[in-house]
Amino acid sequence: MNKRTIALLVALIGLCIAPLSAEDAKPATTAAPIAPPAPTAEKVDKKGKGAREDWDKLTEAEKAEKLKERKAKMEARLKDLKAKKAAGTLTDKETQQLERLEKQAARGDRPAGGKRPKKDDATAK
Fold first, then answer.
1. Residue 71: inside a domain, yes or no?
2. What dihedral do alpha carbons 7, 11, 17, 23 form, nearest 10°?
3. Is residue 84 part of a domain?
4. Is 116 part of any domain?
5. What string of pLDDT tens digits covers the 125 residues of the chain?
6. In total, how many domains does the chain have?
7. How far is CA 122 from CA 73, 110, 117, 118, 125, in A?
8. CB neighbour list of residue 47: distance below 8 Å, 6 or more residues apart
C-alpha cells in the first residue's frame, strides 16, 4: 500500500475511536439515569391472574366498597387535574391522564360484570 492509503486508514481509525474516548472522559454526574427496577414476580402476579382471583373471592358488599373507593380516588384525581388545568400548570402526561379520566367519568356506572348490553339488545327493548 502506498503512504496516502495508510494515512487515510489511520485518519479513519482515529475518527472512529475519538467519540469513544470522549464518552469515557465524561464526568459521572452526566451519566444516563438508572433504569427502574424490574417488577417482581409477586407484583406482576397481582396485575395479572392473581388480582382477578382475589376480586372473585370478595363478597358483593366488599366489591361495592372497593368500587366506591376507586370511584372516589378517580374523582379526587380528576378534580386535582382540572384545578391544575385552570391554573395552567398541567404537564403533557397529566393532560393525557385528564382526558382518560374524563372519558371514564363520562361512561358512568356500568352494569354488573363491567359489560354493556349489545346494541341489538338495546334496540330490541
1. yes
2. 150
3. yes
4. no
5. 688 888 878 887 877 776 665 556 555 555 556 666 666 666 655 556 677 888 888 899 999 999 999 999 999 999 999 999 999 998 999 999 999 999 988 887 665 555 555 666 555 55
6. 1
7. 31, 14, 7, 6, 6
8. none
